Amino acid sequence: MELSRASTVNVYNTRGRALVRVTITQVAVHAGVSVASASRALNGQIASAKTVAKVQQAAEELGYVADATAQSLKLGRTNQLAYAVADIGNPVYVEMMTAIERVVSASGYRLVLSSTGTSSSSVDVVRDLGRGYVDGMILSPLRVTDELLSALAKTPTPVVVLGRLPDSATLDTVRADSITAMRLLVDHLVEEGRGDVVFVNGPSDTTPGALRRDGFAAAVAAHPAISARSVGADDFTIAAGYAAALRVLQEHPRPDAIVAANDLIGIGSIQAATDLGLTVPGDIAITGVDNTELAGVIRPGLTSVDLGAEERGRVAAELLLARIEEPNRPAHTVTVAPSLVVRGSSRARTQGPAVSPPSHRTEASDLNDERAAR
Amino acid sequence: MELSRASTVNVYNTRGRALVRVTITQVAVHAGVSVASASRALNGQIASAKTVAKVQQAAEELGYVADATAQSLKLGRTNQLAYAVADIGNPVYVEMMTAIERVVSASGYRLVLSSTGTSSSSVDVVRDLGRGYVDGMILSPLRVTDELLSALAKTPTPVVVLGRLPDSATLDTVRADSITAMRLLVDHLVEEGRGDVVFVNGPSDTTPGALRRDGFAAAVAAHPAISARSVGADDFTIAAGYAAALRVLQEHPRPDAIVAANDLIGIGSIQAATDLGLTVPGDIAITGVDNTELAGVIRPGLTSVDLGAEERGRVAAELLLARIEEPNRPAHTVTVAPSLVVRGSSRARTQGPAVSPPSHRTEASDLNDERAAR
DNA sequence: ATGAAAGCGCTAACAA
DNA sequence: TTGTTAGCGCTTTCAT
Fold this sequence. Notes:
The structure is a homodimer of 374-residue chains. By secondary structure, chain A is an alpha/beta fold.
C-alpha cells in the first residue's frame, strides 16, 4: 500500500475484534432450542414466551445478526433497491435520489446508489444488478443504446427508467417534458424583448442533450422574428459551460440571450459573461434548466425551468414498488410537467442588490418569482 | 399509486418479459451435462473444450446469469464494498467517492453508496451493512456517538472510518488535519492585514464542526493582536452560511474577514456580503475549507484550504482492501496534510475582472494561485 | 474430465 | 408449541 509522502501514519495494535460471524445454529445451541424455534422466536412467529426470552438473550449475548445473503437466498428477495445514475456530481440527481429514498424507505427497502459513470457502463450495471443484488432498480441513463435496451429487456429484475426511451420499449418510464420546457424559456425571453438567442447545449449525443436541442429548435420555430442557433459544451458542467459561453460571447454580433441546457452550464455562462465585463441581464440574459438549488444561490439568480426532479424521483419509486408487487402489470409512462421559475438573470431590467436569502423553489420567498406553466 | 395532477400517464401492454430467473441446473440440463460441469465450464475451471462450448451456448440461449445471493452465500463474499456517507449533497463527499471507486473497482469490487443522512442513522447503516451485504465499508460519520462506536466494534465486516475517532477506538482511520488547516487560513489572513476575524462554523456538535472550531481557536491564539470569535450556521450548506453571514456582517463593528467552516458556507457568505453591497475582498475577506470545484468557479474565487479529499478517499480504500486481505493486521491511522489555495476572495487588493476559466486545483491555470503548505 | 453429493445460513412445511 | 428436514442456487470436494 502506497501512501502520500505528505501523510502521517500511525499504527496501533488491533483489539481482538469478532471477525467471525455467529450463525443461528450457535444461537439455538446456546439457547437450548432447535434452529427452527430460534428462527421463529427471532422473526416474531408463534413461539412460547419462554423460548422467545431464551433465544433473544442468546442472540444478544452472542451478538447475532442474521446473514443477509442466506436470508436473501431463502426468501428470494433482498429488500434492497438500486438507483443507478451516471453523474452524481449533478445536484439534480441528488435531488431525485432523495425523493426516491423517501418513498422506498417508507416501504421497508434500503436504497443503494450505483454510480455508472466512473468505471463501468450502464450496461454492466444493469447486468450486474440483474444478478439478484437488488429487488428492483431505477436507472437514469445518459445514453440509451441498443445494447442497453437489450440488457434491459433481458434482466429479470424490475426496472424503471428515468428518461426517454424509444416507443418500442415497453418499460415503466418517467420523463420530463423537454419540448414544453424549452418553449417556456424561449417564450419568456421573447416576451422580455430578446431577439438573438444562443442555445448552449451539453453533449448532444446524450438523451437530455438531444431532447433539449430538439425542444429549443421547436420553440424558436414558433418565433420567426428572432435569430437563434445552437452550440455544444463538452459536458453538463460549470467548467464546460464557462468555456462554451466564453466563445459565444466573444463573437460579433453578440447574442442578447443564452439558453443553457442545464443549470451548471448556465452558471458557467454567467461567470463567463461577468469575467468578460458584461452585465447579466443587462447585456445578456441567461437561463438554465433543472432549477437546482444553485440557481437560487448564484447572483444574479438564474432563471430556470423546473423539470420536476423531485416528482420524477418520487413517481419512479412508486412505479417500481407497484411493479414489484404486480410484476405483470402494464407498463406505465409518466410525463412530468415543467414549470418556469423566473429570476434575475433574464429580466429586462436589473434590480438593485436586495437582501433576501438564496431561495429554492420550495421556499416561500421564491413564490413571487414563479410562473405556472402549461 | 398517486400521481401528480400535472402529469400525463400512458399505459402500454407489457411485452412478455422473462421475469423468471434461469438457474445453473437448467443450463446443465440444456447442455446435457451435470451442474458441476456447468459450474466449472462457466468459471474457467478445468473442463473439456467440448463441454465449455456446450455450456456456454446453453447459457447464452437461456440468458443465464449467476445468482448473486447464492454465489455469495457459497463463497462467503459479495465482491461489494460500501461507502456510507451522511450528506451526499456536499461535493467533497462526491470527490471522495470518486477516488474510492477508482481504487476498489481496480481490485474487482463494486462500490455501492449508502446514504445515512435521510431516513436511517449511521448506527442502523453499520448494523445493516454488517449483515453481509458487503465485504467491507468506508464510513464518513458526521457525529461519532458511543452507540456508533459500539456498533463499529461489534460488526464482523471490515470498516475504515473517514474522520476522527477517540483514541480508544483502534480502527483503521483516515483523518484530515484541521489544526494545521485552520492555522494556514488564519496565518494567511493576518499576513494580508486582516485583524478582526469571525469563524462561521457549521453545527459544532458534528465532528468536523468541533475540530474546525478548535483549530480556529488554536490558530488565533497564536496571534494575540487580532480579534476573533466564532458563530454557528445551522448546517454545512450555502443557505445556512448565507443566513449566518448576513447576521455577522450587519453587526458593528463589522469584521474584516470571515473564515467559513467549509466552502458551501463560504459561498453563502460571499453571496450575503454581495447582497449587502459589500465588496469581496475589499470590504471583507472570506475563506472556505475543502477546496471543492465550486471554490474555483465562484466570483471572486474562494480561498480555501484543501483537506485532501481525493487522497483521503484513496487511502481509505487502500486501507480497507488491505484489511480484507489481512483481517488481523494492526490498525492504521493516516493523517493527510492540508494545503492552502489562495484565490481572489482573501487578497489585500481586488484584481480587475480577468478572463480565465474557472479553475480547480488540478488545473494548470490554478498553479499561480497555489501556495504550498507545511 | 466428469458426476454425485455435501453444505454455505437461513426459513418453512410437515410431524409430532 | 416444538423439532426434524428439505431446499433456495451455487461451488467444491471426492469418487469415478
